[in-house]
Amino acid sequence: MLAKRIIPCLDVKDGATVKGTNFVNLRSAGDPVELGKAYSLQGADELVFLDITASHEGRKTFCEMVSRVAAEISIPFTVGGGIRELADVARLLDAGADKVSINSAALRRPQLIDEIAGHFGSQVCVVAIDAKEVVHGDWRCYLNGGRVPTERGLMEWAKEANERGAGEILFTSMDHDGVKQGFANDALAQLADTLSIPVIASGGAGAKEHFADAFRLGHADAALAASVFHFGEIPIPELKQYLRGEGIPVRL
After folding, report:
1. What is the pTM of this model?
2. Catalytic annotation on 98?
3. Is 11 in the active site?
4. What DSSP assignment string belongs to 84-129?
5. What is the pLDDT along the chain (252 residues), one digit of tens a residue?
6. Which one of the listed residues 130, 177, 213, 221 is annotated catalytic?
């Protein structure tokens, strides 16, 4: 079985790492460059950097910051925020990103997935989906960092992204984000069992057990978290030892 991945996420606004609850009430969590370097040294499997207001503010991701983070880490690096065209992808890859995460732009123009996969390879294209459960089992996708609801359903959009050439799906449950009560494991399992590409769980990590549940119950390939790592609540080496002890394959 492939090793499960642990992925810290840097949500960056105005050059600082921030973290909120249900996508609002943001508070500062430190310098992205220092955090990225620390996570690389602690044994994180990958790092995700999201410029969380780029799409909403209609601007490009801050490339200089991406370069500074990339220079300090030795793990795969995914960058998202404000990516609307191939030139944006090329600029971020040149700045040191290994993959890009697209969300709002892909929902508005799904052909962007085909273009990125066709030009750079599927492995470069991570499609991030922010979704809320509107009624039991019915999840709807949101744009612009969770600000704008759409009529797209989570499952049908994830399937389309898969078919268009996405390399991975990064699924964030907006209802679980920052609440620390566990991941949306039912929806995760449905995604993981339906798609032919890896699914990254996001939104809800509050205890080591939640990561184990995301892998066991949610069938996720990777689990992403922010505040529990940023504020030292769950050290990554400790988490990985716990998961190994639970029989979940991880790289130590």
Report:
1. 0.93
2. no
3. yes
4. -SHHHHHHHHHHT-SEEEE-HHHHH-THHHHHHHHHH-GGGEEEEE
5. 799 999 999 988 887 787 666 645 556 667 899 999 999 999 999 999 988 776 556 566 678 889 999 999 999 999 998 899 999 999 999 999 999 999 999 999 999 999 999 999 999 999 999 999 999 889 999 998 788 999 999 999 999 999 999 999 999 999 998 789 999 999 999 999 999 999 999 999 999 999 999 999 999 999 999 989 988 999 999 999 999 999 999 999
6. 130
